[in-house]
């Protein structure tokens, strides 16, 4: 495991390494859930945050998510204007 190698290389206590792994797992879950379209309010609740601002710290927008959102917006805009494409 990558984290275990880092722990040994830098003489990091095992208890701290476990805490770091837990944090990385939560961050990874939040990023994946948001990138797959789960609303941030739901992610916040799953993580047990009482303030959505805390969840926003975990949330990082991915290029793929941004591309998907812009495509979806463009599709909706196109339908609104009866198929007129914008270029």
Q: Short description, anyone?
A:
This protein has helices at residues 2-9, 14-35, 40-47, 52-58, 63-80. The chain is mainly α.
End-to-end CA span: 47 Å
How does the helix and strand content classify structurally? mainly alpha
- Oligomeric description of these chains: single chain
Helical content band: over 70%
Spans with pLDDT under 50 lasting ≥5 residues?
none
Q: How many beta-strand segments? A: 0
Number of helices: 5
- Helix/strand order, N-terminal first: HHHHH
**Beta-strand share of residues:** under 5%
As a whole number of angstroms, the C-alpha radius of gyration is 19 Å
Mean pLDDT: 78
Q: Specify the biggest β-sheet.
A: none
Shape descriptor: elongated
Characterization of this structure:
- This protein has 87 residues and is mainly α.
- Helix content is 72%, strand content 0%.
- It has a domain at 2-60.
- It comes from Parabacteroides merdae.
- GO terms for molecular function: DNA binding.
List keywords for this structure.
87 residues; mainly alpha; elongated
Task: Outline the secondary-structure elements.
Elements lengths: L1 H8 L4 H22 L4 H8 L4 H7 L4 H18 L7
Helix pairs in contact: 2-3, 3-4
């Amino acid at each position: 495991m990558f984290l275990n190698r880092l722990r040994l290389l830098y003489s990091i206590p095992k208890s701290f390494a476990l805490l770091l792994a837990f944090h990385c797992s939560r961050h990874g879950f939040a990023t994946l859930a948001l990138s797959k379209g789960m609303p941030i309010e739901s992610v916040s609740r799953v993580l047990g945050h009482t303030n959505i601002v805390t969840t926003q710290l975990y949330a990082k927008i991915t290029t793929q998510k941004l591309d998907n959102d812009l495509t979806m917006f463009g599709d909706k805009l196109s339908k609104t204007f009866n198929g007129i494409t914008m270029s």
